[in-house]
Design brief:
four-stranded parallel β-sheet, single chain, alpha/beta, disordered C terminus, six-stranded mixed β-sheet
Length: about 500
Protein backbone atom coordinates (compact mmCIF):
# COMPACT_ATOMS: atom_id res chain seq x y z
CA UNK A 1 0.00 0.00 0.00
CA UNK A 2 1.13 3.55 -0.70
CA UNK A 3 0.36 4.81 2.82
CA UNK A 4 2.63 3.48 5.59
CA UNK A 5 1.80 3.35 9.29
CA UNK A 6 2.11 6.89 10.67
CA UNK A 7 2.52 8.61 14.02
CA UNK A 8 2.10 12.38 14.47
CA UNK A 9 0.44 14.87 16.80
CA UNK A 10 0.14 12.22 19.51
CA UNK A 11 -1.88 9.88 17.28
CA UNK A 12 -1.01 6.61 15.58
CA UNK A 13 -2.69 5.70 12.28
CA UNK A 14 -2.02 2.26 10.86
CA UNK A 15 -3.01 -0.63 8.58
CA UNK A 16 -4.24 1.37 5.59
CA UNK A 17 -6.03 -0.39 2.75
CA UNK A 18 -6.94 0.56 -0.81
CA UNK A 19 -10.04 2.46 0.31
CA UNK A 20 -10.00 3.70 3.90
CA UNK A 21 -13.20 4.98 5.50
CA UNK A 22 -12.68 7.26 8.49
CA UNK A 23 -15.83 7.60 10.58
CA UNK A 24 -16.25 10.40 13.10
CA UNK A 25 -18.58 13.13 14.30
CA UNK A 26 -18.32 16.71 13.09
CA UNK A 27 -15.63 18.53 15.04
CA UNK A 28 -13.73 15.41 16.10
CA UNK A 29 -10.74 16.32 13.91
CA UNK A 30 -11.28 14.27 10.74
CA UNK A 31 -10.20 17.12 8.44
CA UNK A 32 -7.08 17.77 10.49
CA UNK A 33 -6.24 14.09 10.42
CA UNK A 34 -6.63 13.92 6.62
CA UNK A 35 -4.28 16.87 6.21
CA UNK A 36 -1.84 15.34 8.66
CA UNK A 37 -1.72 12.09 6.70
CA UNK A 38 -1.27 14.11 3.50
CA UNK A 39 1.65 16.04 5.03
CA UNK A 40 3.34 12.78 5.96
CA UNK A 41 2.91 11.30 2.46
CA UNK A 42 4.44 14.19 0.52
CA UNK A 43 6.56 11.74 -1.46
CA UNK A 44 3.32 10.50 -3.02
CA UNK A 45 1.04 12.15 -5.59
CA UNK A 46 -1.88 13.37 -3.47
CA UNK A 47 -5.09 15.37 -3.75
CA UNK A 48 -7.25 16.76 -0.93
CA UNK A 49 -10.92 17.49 -1.65
CA UNK A 50 -12.50 19.95 0.77
CA UNK A 51 -15.91 19.26 2.41
CA UNK A 52 -17.39 22.71 1.63
CA UNK A 53 -17.70 22.86 -2.14
CA UNK A 54 -19.61 25.87 -3.45
CA UNK A 55 -20.38 27.49 -6.80
CA UNK A 56 -21.83 26.27 -10.10
CA UNK A 57 -20.18 23.95 -12.63
CA UNK A 58 -19.82 26.75 -15.18
CA UNK A 59 -16.72 27.10 -17.32
CA UNK A 60 -14.58 30.17 -16.61
CA UNK A 61 -11.41 30.69 -18.66
CA UNK A 62 -9.69 32.54 -15.80
CA UNK A 63 -9.82 29.40 -13.65
CA UNK A 64 -8.16 27.38 -16.39
CA UNK A 65 -5.44 30.03 -16.65
CA UNK A 66 -4.87 29.84 -12.88
CA UNK A 67 -4.49 26.07 -13.13
CA UNK A 68 -1.68 26.39 -15.68
CA UNK A 69 0.11 29.42 -14.24
CA UNK A 70 0.26 28.48 -10.56
CA UNK A 71 -0.85 24.89 -10.35
CA UNK A 72 1.02 23.80 -7.22
CA UNK A 73 -0.25 26.67 -5.08
CA UNK A 74 -3.73 26.52 -6.55
CA UNK A 75 -4.38 22.81 -6.09
CA UNK A 76 -2.55 22.16 -2.84
CA UNK A 77 -2.96 25.39 -0.89
CA UNK A 78 -6.06 27.29 -1.93
CA UNK A 79 -8.24 24.32 -2.87
CA UNK A 80 -7.34 22.45 0.33
CA UNK A 81 -9.14 24.96 2.51
CA UNK A 82 -12.18 23.61 4.35
CA UNK A 83 -14.40 26.09 2.52
CA UNK A 84 -13.99 26.90 -1.16
CA UNK A 85 -16.60 29.29 -2.52
CA UNK A 86 -16.28 28.40 -6.22
CA UNK A 87 -14.95 24.88 -6.03
CA UNK A 88 -17.38 23.63 -8.70
CA UNK A 89 -16.47 26.39 -11.13
CA UNK A 90 -12.86 25.31 -10.88
CA UNK A 91 -13.96 21.70 -11.41
CA UNK A 92 -15.51 22.83 -14.69
CA UNK A 93 -12.12 24.23 -15.71
CA UNK A 94 -10.53 20.89 -14.83
CA UNK A 95 -12.90 19.18 -17.28
CA UNK A 96 -11.03 20.64 -20.24
CA UNK A 97 -7.68 19.59 -18.81
CA UNK A 98 -9.09 16.11 -18.24
CA UNK A 99 -10.08 15.81 -21.91
CA UNK A 100 -6.63 17.03 -23.03
CA UNK A 101 -4.78 14.61 -20.73
CA UNK A 102 -6.96 11.73 -21.87
CA UNK A 103 -6.23 12.44 -25.54
CA UNK A 104 -2.50 12.82 -24.88
CA UNK A 105 -2.44 9.45 -23.09
CA UNK A 106 -4.18 7.93 -26.07
CA UNK A 107 -1.77 9.60 -28.50
CA UNK A 108 1.37 8.24 -26.86
CA UNK A 109 0.11 4.69 -26.27
CA UNK A 110 0.01 2.49 -29.37
CA UNK A 111 -1.97 -0.25 -27.63
CA UNK A 112 -4.68 2.17 -26.53
CA UNK A 113 -5.02 3.59 -30.03
CA UNK A 114 -5.73 0.12 -31.35
CA UNK A 115 -8.53 -0.32 -28.82
CA UNK A 116 -11.54 1.20 -30.59
CA UNK A 117 -13.58 1.12 -27.37
CA UNK A 118 -11.08 3.32 -25.56
CA UNK A 119 -12.83 6.67 -25.96
CA UNK A 120 -13.38 9.65 -23.71
CA UNK A 121 -17.12 9.09 -23.92
CA UNK A 122 -17.03 5.45 -22.83
CA UNK A 123 -14.18 5.68 -20.31
CA UNK A 124 -15.30 8.88 -18.57
CA UNK A 125 -18.48 10.59 -19.78
CA UNK A 126 -20.67 7.49 -19.64
CA UNK A 127 -19.59 6.84 -16.06
CA UNK A 128 -20.33 10.43 -15.05
CA UNK A 129 -23.72 10.40 -16.78
CA UNK A 130 -24.62 7.13 -15.05
CA UNK A 131 -24.57 9.09 -11.79
CA UNK A 132 -27.07 11.68 -13.00
CA UNK A 133 -30.84 11.19 -13.13
CA UNK A 134 -32.10 14.30 -14.90
CA UNK A 135 -29.21 15.69 -16.92
CA UNK A 136 -26.55 14.46 -19.31
CA UNK A 137 -23.11 15.92 -20.05
CA UNK A 138 -21.84 16.25 -23.62
CA UNK A 139 -18.54 17.33 -25.07
CA UNK A 140 -18.59 20.66 -26.87
CA UNK A 141 -16.23 22.40 -29.28
CA UNK A 142 -17.33 25.78 -27.94
CA UNK A 143 -15.31 27.78 -25.46
CA UNK A 144 -17.34 26.46 -22.53
CA UNK A 145 -16.02 22.93 -23.33
CA UNK A 146 -19.16 20.95 -22.40
CA UNK A 147 -22.93 21.12 -22.60
CA UNK A 148 -25.52 20.13 -20.00
CA UNK A 149 -28.81 18.82 -21.39
CA UNK A 150 -32.10 17.74 -19.92
CA UNK A 151 -32.01 13.95 -20.16
CA UNK A 152 -35.68 13.76 -21.17
CA UNK A 153 -36.14 16.74 -23.52
CA UNK A 154 -32.50 17.20 -24.66
CA UNK A 155 -32.86 20.94 -24.09
CA UNK A 156 -29.65 22.71 -23.07
CA UNK A 157 -29.56 23.78 -19.40
CA UNK A 158 -27.60 26.59 -17.80
CA UNK A 159 -25.24 25.12 -15.15
CA UNK A 160 -26.72 27.51 -12.58
CA UNK A 161 -30.10 25.80 -12.97
CA UNK A 162 -29.21 22.18 -12.26
CA UNK A 163 -29.81 20.68 -8.82
CA UNK A 164 -27.14 21.00 -6.14
CA UNK A 165 -26.85 17.20 -5.94
CA UNK A 166 -26.19 16.76 -9.66
CA UNK A 167 -23.87 19.75 -9.71
CA UNK A 168 -21.98 18.17 -6.82
CA UNK A 169 -21.75 14.76 -8.48
CA UNK A 170 -20.46 16.17 -11.75
CA UNK A 171 -17.90 18.31 -9.96
CA UNK A 172 -16.59 15.48 -7.77
CA UNK A 173 -16.43 12.99 -10.64
CA UNK A 174 -14.42 15.47 -12.72
CA UNK A 175 -12.08 16.11 -9.78
CA UNK A 176 -11.27 12.42 -9.38
CA UNK A 177 -11.04 11.59 -13.09
CA UNK A 178 -8.76 14.60 -13.70
CA UNK A 179 -6.50 13.40 -10.90
CA UNK A 180 -6.50 9.88 -12.36
CA UNK A 181 -5.32 11.16 -15.76
CA UNK A 182 -2.73 13.66 -14.49
CA UNK A 183 0.79 13.09 -15.81
CA UNK A 184 2.34 11.32 -12.83
CA UNK A 185 3.97 8.24 -14.28
CA UNK A 186 5.18 5.89 -11.56
CA UNK A 187 3.76 7.98 -8.72
CA UNK A 188 1.64 6.54 -5.94
CA UNK A 189 -1.72 8.35 -6.04
CA UNK A 190 -3.79 9.09 -2.96
CA UNK A 191 -7.06 11.05 -2.71
CA UNK A 192 -8.02 12.52 0.64
CA UNK A 193 -11.77 12.98 0.48
CA UNK A 194 -13.44 15.07 3.16
CA UNK A 195 -17.15 14.31 3.52
CA UNK A 196 -18.16 13.36 -0.04
CA UNK A 197 -21.72 12.97 1.29
CA UNK A 198 -22.25 16.75 1.60
CA UNK A 199 -25.14 17.93 -0.63
CA UNK A 200 -25.86 14.36 -1.81
CA UNK A 201 -29.09 12.42 -1.31
CA UNK A 202 -28.42 8.88 0.04
CA UNK A 203 -29.08 7.32 -3.39
CA UNK A 204 -26.50 9.62 -4.95
CA UNK A 205 -24.04 8.91 -2.14
CA UNK A 206 -24.33 5.20 -2.92
CA UNK A 207 -23.71 5.67 -6.66
CA UNK A 208 -20.75 7.95 -6.09
CA UNK A 209 -19.17 5.53 -3.60
CA UNK A 210 -19.38 2.82 -6.24
CA UNK A 211 -17.69 5.15 -8.76
CA UNK A 212 -14.91 5.76 -6.24
CA UNK A 213 -14.29 2.03 -6.08
CA UNK A 214 -14.26 1.71 -9.88
CA UNK A 215 -11.75 4.55 -10.30
CA UNK A 216 -9.61 3.16 -7.49
CA UNK A 217 -9.35 -0.21 -9.19
CA UNK A 218 -8.87 1.05 -12.76
CA UNK A 219 -6.32 3.76 -11.94
CA UNK A 220 -4.59 2.29 -8.87
CA UNK A 221 -5.61 5.18 -6.62
CA UNK A 222 -5.90 4.84 -2.87
CA UNK A 223 -8.55 6.79 -0.98
CA UNK A 224 -8.86 8.05 2.56
CA UNK A 225 -12.48 9.13 3.03
CA UNK A 226 -13.70 11.00 6.09
CA UNK A 227 -17.46 10.64 6.47
CA UNK A 228 -20.37 10.15 8.82
CA UNK A 229 -22.54 8.68 6.05
CA UNK A 230 -23.64 5.11 6.76
CA UNK A 231 -24.73 4.91 3.11
CA UNK A 232 -21.15 5.37 1.91
CA UNK A 233 -19.95 2.83 4.47
CA UNK A 234 -22.55 0.34 3.22
CA UNK A 235 -21.72 1.00 -0.44
CA UNK A 236 -18.01 0.38 0.08
CA UNK A 237 -18.35 -2.45 2.58
CA UNK A 238 -18.52 -5.12 -0.14
CA UNK A 239 -15.45 -3.88 -2.01
CA UNK A 240 -12.09 -5.63 -1.96
CA UNK A 241 -9.60 -4.20 0.54
CA UNK A 242 -11.91 -1.45 1.77
CA UNK A 243 -11.25 -0.78 5.45
CA UNK A 244 -12.83 1.30 8.21
CA UNK A 245 -11.40 3.25 11.12
CA UNK A 246 -13.30 4.88 13.97
CA UNK A 247 -12.39 8.31 15.33
CA UNK A 248 -13.73 9.83 18.53
CA UNK A 249 -12.50 11.92 21.42
CA UNK A 250 -9.68 10.47 23.46
CA UNK A 251 -8.56 7.89 20.91
CA UNK A 252 -4.79 7.63 20.55
CA UNK A 253 -4.68 5.01 17.81
CA UNK A 254 -6.76 4.59 14.68
CA UNK A 255 -6.41 1.18 13.13
CA UNK A 256 -8.11 0.58 9.82
CA UNK A 257 -9.76 -2.82 9.97
CA UNK A 258 -11.25 -5.18 7.43
CA UNK A 259 -15.00 -4.75 6.98
CA UNK A 260 -16.60 -7.89 8.40
CA UNK A 261 -20.04 -9.40 7.87
CA UNK A 262 -20.93 -8.15 11.35
CA UNK A 263 -20.28 -4.55 10.33
CA UNK A 264 -22.33 -5.03 7.15
CA UNK A 265 -25.22 -6.18 9.33
CA UNK A 266 -24.87 -3.42 11.92
CA UNK A 267 -24.47 -0.41 9.61
CA UNK A 268 -27.94 -0.51 7.95
CA UNK A 269 -29.59 -0.22 11.37
CA UNK A 270 -28.06 3.21 11.77
CA UNK A 271 -29.91 6.08 10.16
CA UNK A 272 -28.94 7.15 6.61
CA UNK A 273 -28.75 10.63 8.16
CA UNK A 274 -26.68 9.87 11.27
CA UNK A 275 -26.42 13.47 12.43
CA UNK A 276 -30.19 13.56 12.95
CA UNK A 277 -31.73 12.26 16.15
CA UNK A 278 -33.40 9.32 14.41
CA UNK A 279 -30.95 6.75 15.74
CA UNK A 280 -31.38 7.75 19.37
CA UNK A 281 -35.17 7.73 19.00
CA UNK A 282 -34.97 4.17 17.67
CA UNK A 283 -31.66 2.77 18.96
CA UNK A 284 -30.07 -0.47 17.85
CA UNK A 285 -31.03 -3.67 19.69
CA UNK A 286 -28.65 -6.56 19.03
CA UNK A 287 -30.31 -9.96 19.43
CA UNK A 288 -29.19 -13.52 18.90
CA UNK A 289 -31.68 -14.83 16.34
CA UNK A 290 -34.43 -14.03 13.84
CA UNK A 291 -37.21 -15.02 16.24
CA UNK A 292 -35.94 -12.46 18.76
CA UNK A 293 -35.81 -9.77 16.08
CA UNK A 294 -39.39 -10.45 14.94
CA UNK A 295 -40.67 -10.45 18.52
CA UNK A 296 -39.09 -7.08 19.28
CA UNK A 297 -40.21 -5.63 15.96
CA UNK A 298 -43.74 -6.67 16.84
CA UNK A 299 -43.30 -5.13 20.28
CA UNK A 300 -42.47 -1.75 18.72
CA UNK A 301 -45.55 -1.97 16.49
CA UNK A 302 -47.85 -2.93 19.37
CA UNK A 303 -46.50 -0.41 21.87
CA UNK A 304 -48.17 2.68 20.34
CA UNK A 305 -44.81 4.44 20.22
CA UNK A 306 -43.33 3.96 23.67
CA UNK A 307 -41.02 1.11 22.58
CA UNK A 308 -38.73 2.12 19.72
CA UNK A 309 -35.77 -0.11 18.90
CA UNK A 310 -34.17 -1.35 15.68
CA UNK A 311 -33.31 -5.06 16.00
CA UNK A 312 -30.10 -6.37 14.48
CA UNK A 313 -29.53 -10.14 14.33
CA UNK A 314 -26.10 -11.43 15.34
CA UNK A 315 -26.98 -14.98 14.31
CA UNK A 316 -25.36 -16.87 17.18
CA UNK A 317 -24.55 -16.16 20.80
CA UNK A 318 -20.87 -16.41 19.90
CA UNK A 319 -21.17 -13.38 17.62
CA UNK A 320 -22.96 -11.14 20.11
CA UNK A 321 -19.79 -9.58 21.52
CA UNK A 322 -18.42 -8.77 18.05
CA UNK A 323 -21.69 -7.06 17.07
CA UNK A 324 -21.81 -5.15 20.35
CA UNK A 325 -18.25 -3.87 20.00
CA UNK A 326 -18.80 -2.73 16.40
CA UNK A 327 -22.08 -1.00 17.21
CA UNK A 328 -20.43 0.64 20.22
CA UNK A 329 -17.58 2.11 18.17
CA UNK A 330 -19.83 3.16 15.32
CA UNK A 331 -22.28 4.91 17.64
CA UNK A 332 -19.46 6.71 19.48
CA UNK A 333 -18.09 7.92 16.15
CA UNK A 334 -21.44 9.19 14.85
CA UNK A 335 -23.53 10.58 17.72
CA UNK A 336 -23.14 13.03 20.55
CA UNK A 337 -25.18 11.13 23.15
CA UNK A 338 -25.72 7.70 21.62
CA UNK A 339 -27.48 4.72 23.14
CA UNK A 340 -28.12 1.13 22.17
CA UNK A 341 -28.88 -2.27 23.65
CA UNK A 342 -28.29 -5.98 23.31
CA UNK A 343 -30.29 -8.82 24.86
CA UNK A 344 -29.03 -12.33 25.55
CA UNK A 345 -31.00 -15.33 26.70
CA UNK A 346 -30.39 -16.38 30.30
CA UNK A 347 -29.28 -19.85 29.10
CA UNK A 348 -26.13 -18.30 27.63
CA UNK A 349 -24.96 -17.32 31.10
CA UNK A 350 -24.69 -13.75 32.29
CA UNK A 351 -22.70 -12.80 29.21
CA UNK A 352 -22.69 -9.06 29.91
CA UNK A 353 -20.05 -7.18 27.98
CA UNK A 354 -18.53 -4.77 30.51
CA UNK A 355 -16.14 -3.10 28.03
CA UNK A 356 -18.83 -1.08 26.28
CA UNK A 357 -19.56 2.64 26.43
CA UNK A 358 -22.80 2.90 24.45
CA UNK A 359 -24.36 -0.54 24.10
CA UNK A 360 -26.19 -1.60 27.26
CA UNK A 361 -25.76 -5.37 27.38
CA UNK A 362 -28.81 -6.95 29.01
CA UNK A 363 -29.90 -10.51 29.83
CA UNK A 364 -33.41 -11.96 29.97
CA UNK A 365 -34.57 -13.08 33.41
CA UNK A 366 -35.85 -16.32 31.91
CA UNK A 367 -34.17 -19.24 30.15
CA UNK A 368 -34.83 -17.96 26.63
CA UNK A 369 -37.27 -15.96 24.54
CA UNK A 370 -39.62 -18.95 24.27
CA UNK A 371 -40.26 -18.93 28.03
CA UNK A 372 -42.07 -15.61 27.70
CA UNK A 373 -44.82 -17.63 26.03
CA UNK A 374 -45.74 -19.07 29.45
CA UNK A 375 -45.93 -15.72 31.24
CA UNK A 376 -49.29 -14.70 32.72
CA UNK A 377 -49.54 -11.77 30.29
CA UNK A 378 -49.21 -13.88 27.14
CA UNK A 379 -51.54 -16.56 28.49
CA UNK A 380 -54.18 -13.99 29.46
CA UNK A 381 -54.01 -12.38 26.01
CA UNK A 382 -54.84 -15.81 24.54
CA UNK A 383 -57.80 -16.36 26.89
CA UNK A 384 -56.19 -18.79 29.34
CA UNK A 385 -54.13 -18.82 32.55
CA UNK A 386 -51.37 -20.80 34.20
CA UNK A 387 -53.54 -23.31 36.17
CA UNK A 388 -55.51 -24.11 33.01
CA UNK A 389 -52.26 -24.41 31.06
CA UNK A 390 -50.83 -26.94 33.52
CA UNK A 391 -53.97 -29.04 33.19
CA UNK A 392 -53.68 -28.97 29.39
CA UNK A 393 -50.08 -30.16 29.63
CA UNK A 394 -51.10 -33.09 31.83
CA UNK A 395 -53.95 -33.98 29.49
CA UNK A 396 -51.57 -33.90 26.52
CA UNK A 397 -49.14 -36.25 28.28
CA UNK A 398 -51.92 -38.74 28.96
CA UNK A 399 -52.72 -38.83 25.23
CA UNK A 400 -49.15 -38.74 23.86
CA UNK A 401 -47.10 -40.99 26.14
CA UNK A 402 -44.81 -42.17 23.32
CA UNK A 403 -44.26 -38.77 21.71
CA UNK A 404 -40.69 -37.71 20.93
CA UNK A 405 -40.85 -34.94 23.53
CA UNK A 406 -43.03 -36.71 26.11
CA UNK A 407 -40.12 -37.41 28.46
CA UNK A 408 -38.88 -33.80 28.25
CA UNK A 409 -42.33 -32.48 29.11
CA UNK A 410 -42.67 -35.02 31.97
CA UNK A 411 -39.36 -33.75 33.33
CA UNK A 412 -40.71 -30.20 33.13
CA UNK A 413 -43.73 -31.27 35.19
CA UNK A 414 -41.73 -33.29 37.74
CA UNK A 415 -39.35 -30.37 38.25
CA UNK A 416 -42.28 -28.28 39.48
CA UNK A 417 -43.38 -26.53 36.28
CA UNK A 418 -40.52 -24.02 36.39
CA UNK A 419 -41.89 -22.05 33.46
CA UNK A 420 -39.40 -19.19 33.87
CA UNK A 421 -36.15 -21.17 34.08
CA UNK A 422 -36.81 -24.53 32.40
CA UNK A 423 -35.67 -25.18 28.84
CA UNK A 424 -38.89 -25.38 26.79
CA UNK A 425 -37.40 -24.41 23.44
CA UNK A 426 -37.51 -27.96 21.99
CA UNK A 427 -41.25 -28.44 22.57
CA UNK A 428 -42.43 -24.85 22.37
CA UNK A 429 -44.67 -25.60 19.36
CA UNK A 430 -46.52 -28.22 21.39
CA UNK A 431 -47.16 -25.63 24.10
CA UNK A 432 -48.11 -23.06 21.47
CA UNK A 433 -50.76 -25.42 20.15
CA UNK A 434 -52.34 -25.40 23.60
CA UNK A 435 -52.18 -21.59 23.92
CA UNK A 436 -52.96 -20.22 20.47
CA UNK A 437 -52.23 -22.43 17.45
CA UNK A 438 -53.20 -19.67 15.03
CA UNK A 439 -50.37 -17.24 15.84
CA UNK A 440 -46.56 -17.65 15.81
CA UNK A 441 -45.07 -17.62 19.30
CA UNK A 442 -42.91 -14.58 18.63
CA UNK A 443 -45.95 -12.56 17.56
CA UNK A 444 -47.78 -13.39 20.81
CA UNK A 445 -44.69 -12.45 22.82
CA UNK A 446 -44.11 -9.22 20.86
CA UNK A 447 -47.71 -8.10 21.30
CA UNK A 448 -47.56 -8.76 25.05
CA UNK A 449 -44.32 -6.79 25.45
CA UNK A 450 -45.80 -3.96 23.39
CA UNK A 451 -48.76 -3.87 25.75
CA UNK A 452 -46.63 -3.15 28.81
CA UNK A 453 -46.84 0.28 30.39
CA UNK A 454 -44.92 2.10 33.10
CA UNK A 455 -47.42 0.96 35.75
CA UNK A 456 -46.28 -2.62 35.05
CA UNK A 457 -42.98 -1.83 36.76
CA UNK A 458 -44.84 -2.62 39.98
CA UNK A 459 -45.11 -6.26 38.83
CA UNK A 460 -41.37 -6.89 38.45
CA UNK A 461 -41.35 -9.16 41.54
CA UNK A 462 -44.66 -10.86 40.77
CA UNK A 463 -44.20 -14.56 40.00
CA UNK A 464 -45.35 -15.45 36.50
CA UNK A 465 -45.59 -11.87 35.28
CA UNK A 466 -44.08 -10.79 31.98
CA UNK A 467 -42.09 -8.01 33.72
CA UNK A 468 -40.44 -10.63 35.97
CA UNK A 469 -39.68 -12.90 32.98
CA UNK A 470 -38.07 -9.94 31.19
CA UNK A 471 -36.23 -8.84 34.30
CA UNK A 472 -35.58 -5.57 36.04
CA UNK A 473 -32.66 -4.38 33.82
CA UNK A 474 -34.70 -4.73 30.60
CA UNK A 475 -37.78 -3.14 32.17
CA UNK A 476 -35.98 -0.21 33.80
CA UNK A 477 -33.04 0.38 31.49
CA UNK A 478 -34.56 -0.24 28.05
CA UNK A 479 -38.36 -0.16 28.17
CA UNK A 480 -38.80 2.55 30.83
CA UNK A 481 -35.32 4.10 31.09
CA UNK A 482 -36.13 7.16 33.20
CA UNK A 483 -36.09 5.00 36.35
CA UNK A 484 -32.76 4.95 38.19
CA UNK A 485 -31.54 1.55 39.41
CA UNK A 486 -28.32 -0.08 40.61
CA UNK A 487 -26.50 -1.79 37.71
CA UNK A 488 -25.90 -5.50 38.18
CA UNK A 489 -22.12 -5.14 38.06
CA UNK A 490 -21.49 -1.76 39.65
CA UNK A 491 -22.52 0.81 42.23
CA UNK A 492 -25.93 2.40 42.25
CA UNK A 493 -26.57 5.33 39.97
CA UNK A 494 -28.35 6.47 36.83
CA UNK A 495 -28.70 3.61 34.38
CA UNK A 496 -27.00 3.95 31.00
CA UNK A 497 -29.20 4.62 28.01
Amino acid sequence: MAIPDLAFDGLKVKDFGRINILVGKNGCGKSSLLRGIQRHTQDKHTKYITPERGGAVKYNASYEQQLHENRAHHLISERSRNQKIDFRGQSAALFNELAVNFMQALHYDDALRLDLTYKFETRILDKINALLDNITIELSDAAKRFLIRNKRTQAEIDPANISSGESELFSLAVEIFSFAYEKSIGADKIVFFDEPDVHLHPDLQYRFAKLINTISLEHHIEFVIATHSTVIISALSDETNAKIGFMHEGKEEIKFREITNALRDVVPVFSPHPLSNQFNSSPILIVEGDDDAIAWTQATKSSQGHIRVSPCVAGTIGKMSEYEQLADELALSLYDIPKGYSIRDRDSGNGRNTNLTVINSLVLNCYSLENLLLSDDVLAASGTNWPAMKQQIEDWLNCHQQHLYANSIRQFCSDGYLRQTHKIKDYRNILLGMINPNRPFYMLIGQAIGGLRRTDLARIDQDGSLPKFLGEPIMKQMLFPSVSIAPADGPSGQARG
